[in-house]
Model the fold of this input.
Amino acid sequence: TPETPSVAAGSGAAAPSPFGGELALRPVGGGPRYETSAAHPLLRALYELHQVSDILRQCTSFWSHIEGTVKELARSKDHAQSLLRYASKSHRLKERFDQRLMEYSAFWASLL
Done:
C-alpha cells in the first residue's frame, strides 16, 4: 500500500519558504509522489505548484533560446543587406557576399 507522506510542519520540522518568512509544508523523507487520493490536499497542491514551476522554467529557457535565434537572424539580415549594397561594386566583395550567403543558408538549415 502506498505510504501517506507526513506533513513536516505538524512534526515541528518546517521548511523555510522562498516567499518571505512563511513556512511551507513538505513531506518527511525526501518527498514521494503526491498523486494518491490519501495524500494531504496541501501536499498535492504543493506538488502541482512544483510542476507548474518546472513548466515555467522550461518556458523561460525556450524563450531565451528563441530570443538568441531572433537576434542572430536580425544580425545576419543586416549584414546581408549591407553586403548586398556594396557587393555589386567589387569582385572581392561579391565573393565575400557569396560566402556569407552560404553561412546564412547553413544557419537556416540547422534550424530545420
Q: What stands out?
A: The longest strand covers residues 15-16. The two ends are 48 Å apart (CA to CA).
